[in-house]
Amino acid sequence: MFASKEVPVIAPSEKALIPFVSVENMMRLVHHIGIEKVLVELTDAVEEDFRRWEMFDKTPRIASHSREGVIELMPTSDGEIYGFKYVNGHPKNMADGLQTVTAFGLLATVSTGYPVLLTEMTLLTALRTAATSAMAARHLAPRNVRSMAMIGNGAQAEFQALAMKAVLGIQEVRLYDIDAKATAKTARNLANSGLTVTSCTSSQAAIEGAGIITTCTADKQYATILTDNMVGGGVHINAIGGDCPGKTELHRDILLRADTFVEYPPQTRIEGEIQQMDADYPVTELWRVIRGEAQGRRDDRQITLFDSVGFAVEDFSALRYVREKLKGTDFYQEIDIIADPDDPRDLFGMLQRAKD
């Protein structure tokens, strides 16, 4: 028998290493900071980037649709840092014990193209989605609102409720899901949150007395979670479940009564609630409200609707936030993801020397 020749271990240079945040380390980081503090700080980080909206590259996400779901890439850049997120949406995964949504993301410097952060984004997407909802509600919801309805009690529900508590001071959350086990799960997880949690047996019961109504369902279909007769004046609706063509949650008559606010119209008209409407249906871009260039809530009877589909700038904000929070911690690993030959022109030579 011949002894196998081991490939020599060549230590990577500092230029080859970038921080990687695993799911384990993301959880450690969140608990180190505190989940509600993370949600408040993420809300502020997203709003900060919305205030400099014109600095970002903007394009609808690149989607690959299938019968089972969708796989998407969400890229953007502010001219100095480039970021993207890989994310999927497969509602049928639940039946196989899999997550409906999984994600990871990356930041890189524009000047060199070198990555500077690679991280899980399944947890981070839930956090940034909740933060974005809270940011919108901060500008659009009724004043001193204290009760919210959470219709759809899946993986996002607790994050949404805690963000509204931490950012807006919500005191009560009213839960409903067609799956009673999902509602029981959410109620159990929020039991010690400081929120009054009411489990309801219908969406109509859930929205009674609620100033904020959040819909977050997963089925890829034209659904009617809320009908026009259910929604009274003076509420704010966060519609966050519709996020691809052929998937909606609200009856179109609600949109005829509401003032609708969106992230990026070219994407939302394809993927959001407004895909049901004519091409000239009026919408207001949320960044303009945040900058004081457009009116948000104008009176106590107005219905405001945030037709949220998720946009790359929000993921950029979340990645930027995590990169900053990692400084001075051990909540990451360094991985050698970049080849770094002694001579930048001699990539082949680096490979060959690895077997000498």
Automatic annotation (TrEMBL):
UniProt feature coiled coil, ranges: none
Record keyword Lyase present: yes
PANTHER family attached to this UniProt entry: KETIMINE REDUCTASE MU-CRYSTALLIN
EC top class named in words: lyase
Gene Ontology molecular function terms on file: ornithine cyclodeaminase activity
Descriptive protein name: Ornithine cyclodeaminase
Family: Belongs to the ornithine cyclodeaminase/mu-crystallin family.
Annotated InterPro entries: NAD(P)-bd_dom_sf, ODC_Mu_crystall, ODC_N
EC numbers on record: 4.3.1.12
Family annotation (NCBIfam families): PRK07589.1 (NF005762)
Sorted UniProt keywords: Lyase, NAD
Any single Pfam family the record assigns to this protein: OCD_Mu_crystall
